[in-house]
Amino acid sequence: MAGDPTYLIAGASLAGAKTAQTLREEDFQGRIVLIGQESEPPYERPPLSKGYLLGTTSRGEIYVHPQPWYGEHQIDLRLGTAVTGIDPARHEVSLSDGSRIGYAKLLLATGSSPRRLQLPGADLDGVLYLRRVDDSDRLKAALQSASRVAIIGAGWIGLETAAAARAAGAEVTVLERAPLPLLRVLGREAAEVFADLHREHGVDLACGVQVAEILGRGGQAVGVRLADGSRIDADAVIAGIGITPNVELALAAGLEVDNGVRVDEHLRTSDADIYAAGDVANAFHPLLGRHIRVEHWANALYQPQVAARAMLGQDVAYDRLPYFFTDQYDLGMEYSGYVEPGGYDEVIFRGDVEARQFITFWLRGGRVLAGMNVNIWDVNDAIQNLVRAGGRVDAGALGDVKTPLGSLAGAAP
User: pTM above the 0.85 mark?
Assistant: First the structure.
C-alpha cells in the first residue's frame, strides 16, 4: 500500500531470502524488495560442493523457495540486477539498471567472493572456482571428462571437490601450502584425520608446497608448476583458496568495515537503518564476547531471523554458536563452537578415531571451546550445551564413551 515502509535487501542469497521470509512471518505489511545480481532465484550453497556436484541432488532441490513463493508473499524479487551504491543520508540505493529505490531499512546480504589466484596462467580456460551454481555446473562438466584434476587449497571446498572428483573417477592431486589440510581450522590433531581420509581414497595430498604457475597449451590449463620446479599434469585446475567478504558497497557508503561489515549483536551496522547478515557480517557474539565472521551455511540460515526482527524494532540478539558440516566419502561431520588458530591447549578424542566414529573436543583451561562429531549423530545439542556451559570439565570423563555427554555440564566458570 502507498505510504507503507520499504525494506530493501541487497543480495538474493539464502540470507536475503530468509530475511524476506521472516519479515512476512512477523507480519510486516510493508514493501519488500529483494535484489540479486544472479539470474537464479535464491539458492543454498552447500549442495554445490556436495550433492548437486555429485549429481545426487537435483537443481530444483537447491532453491530456498519455489519461484511462485515470492509473488505469493508479495516480495518484489529482482534478479540479474545489482545494487551499485547506497546513499545512507537519503535512504536510497542505486541499481545497475540506472534506477533508484528508497528504503526505510536496508539489509546487506552481499555474501563473499572466491579469492582469485594471483599466478601466471590463472586466466586460462580450465581454471575453475566454486561459489555459484553455474560454477558448480562447469565443475560437474569438467569432472565428467577430466582424467586428472589438480586442486589448489585443502580447505573445505578443496577437500569436498577432491572427494567429488574421486567419485567421478579422476586422479586427484591436492596442493596445500600448510603442512596439513584444514590446519588453521582444526589444528594438527584433527587435521590428520582428514589427511588420512583423502590419502586412503587415492588422493595425492601434497602439503607444504607452493604453486608457481598454471601451465597452459592453446589457452587451456594443462597442469601446475610448483616453486621447486616439479610439474603436475591436469585436465582441470580447481582453486579453493578461501573467500573474501563483499564489502565494497558498505565501504563506499561509509559503514564501518573490519573483516566484513561490522555489526552488533542485533546485526545492525554503524548506520542505525542498515543491517547485515551471512558471510559479509562480522558480528559481535554475546557468548564469545568478541566480533566473529563465520563463512558457513548456518549463519546465512539463522542470522536473518534476528536481522529481520531487529529491523522491525524487536529486542533480539544473535547468539547461536558457530556451526558447520561436511560430507566427504563415507565421512560425515558436524562442528560447533569457535576456536582461534592456536587458541586451545588440549584436544580430547572420544570414540574410535581409526574407524572414524568419534567426537573431538578442543579445550582451553579445562573448558570446552568446540566439538566435532564424526559419523556419530544426535550429539550436537549436547556438544553445544557443553560449550555454552563454559565450566571446567573432567578430561577423563569427557573422553570416556561410557560417560553421558549430558552429565558433563562442568563446574562453574
Answer: yes
